[in-house]
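Example (one chain per record):
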Amino acid sequence: MKKINMKQHITHMVRERAKKYGAREVFRFRDKNMQYQPVSWENLIKEINRVALALDELGFGLVSNIGIFGNNSPQWLMADLAIMSVRGVTVPFFGNTSLQQVRYIVDETEMKLMFVGNEEQLEKAIWLTENTQTLETIVLLDPELNSPAKNCYHWNDFISKLDEKGADARLGKLIDAVEPDDLATIIYTSGTTGEPKGVMLGQDNFMFAFNNHDGRLNLDESDVSLCFLPLSHVFERTWSLYLLHVGATNVFLENPKEVIEVLPVVRPSLMCTVPRFFEKTYEGIQKEVGTWPNTKQKIFDWSIKTGHKSIEYKRKSKPLPFGLNLKLKLADKLVLQKLRKIFGDNVKSFPCSGAAIRPGLLRYFHAIGIFINFGYGATETTATVTCYKPDEYEFDSCGTVMPEVSIKFDENDEILVKGKSVFRGYYKKPDETTQVLSDGWYRTGDEGHLTPEGNLIMTDRLRDIIKTSGGKFVSPQKMELLIGQDDYVEQIIAIGDNRKFISALIVPAFDNLYKYAKGIGIETKDNLEIIEDDRILKFYQDRISKLQEELSPYERIVKYTLLHEPFSIENKALTTTLKIRRKVIELKYRDLIDGMYLG
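Predicted structure:
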């Protein structure tokens, strides 16, 4: 692996690698016939250059905020790198971001051009060109997608619009003009009031992160990574750019729901993951094993237990005792290697972050022989702050601190992070920036501590932001305000931290509800009885579904439970200033909450 130049711009680094690797494969993707097609390094640079020149010709350059609203594809990263090449700023959107949220970001960034992926995203973008002050131009990332809309360019048409005359000279000027401290991207995350905040990351943040990963990971140009998490997320984005530094191959998966299907085909050595991926895979394995005969189940259980015993030596870099080594070989032949084939049987490491994960789940997959490199990070820290060392780790921790990153804890045990990977601030939000950034230290909003061995234990989330097990950030206040405005809702608390979806506990506005109930022939005045009536349940389902139409899918309340008594100071659900006590409520109604996630 080539040593990184910390003063280098990402686009310079990519061009250096392209000169070295030439016709070698850098990307792989599935075409419309579902066949995998390669993209060479030389073709990657050719496309980046053509898009950069087209952007330059249209007048986009230094600090132009340019959107990418699409699912994973080679064109996504080509557009990203082309934007960087003209010193523009990439503003990514999740593929299923709501129109309301996209509009907010377009307005705040005064975005004039947006790259879009599929028809649904295109519809939203066209609407935005007609209903916002700034958005004028749309470029289609998918070469198979077309649109007759005004100022909407097909990918190939866009890059063919450039004036070839003097192109080489213009390209040379663009390449020479970039600076290592250029602003690279603004990544929007949920704010505590539901208003998204744009995290500003520079070229220097990314290059520092790459250097840090070199000091911890063992990757090389023979590695193949499957890109299935959204490139709009800092985790997958940083990782995919890091792979370019390494010279490895990145295989793009547009639909993340197909990941289990394609793993045995792609056979990746690497893949960024979130805890929810392993939760679902574990559930699938256990469901299948549950159908087996007793004898076969006992062999399976013995093999997993043997794997568990072996990892206690492996995680401390100790040799296996002779007898255990023999048992492990047998367990591997009978069960473990078959389980690894689910992942393609070529796994070196699966970096995992984005939410908390049960230590038992980590142990289970390590026992199989899948090295899950669990870590902790944030958009504001250019992803990784801590992760496992390959030769020493503790399953109940988030690993050890990355090289040249510092962490400390305040009087409330809040984790503070300092280093060159820490962001520059929130775009156009100086007050919010000041609240979390002081003297280079970033307040994470998470509570934790270090063990004597240097492992980070995260114990709680001090901020109210919900982080689902799929790694999505959701503001509970946003949903609570939205649903709470309904005439038939008195109180609501949204739940979903480290869960697979958002749920809620809702206290009806009983006075209004009884009036409605009487109108449809329900005469009861008993709170318990009325909230169990099927007609009332359907009434709430219809109202809540309607209220949530403008939310992104991951923000929506999927399940809820109606409560017969309100939250109050007396039952300790409210503070003396009438603020919701989330932990108290979640503990009190734990069984009800858990019930919403079963099945």
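Caption: The chain is about 40% helix and 20% strand.
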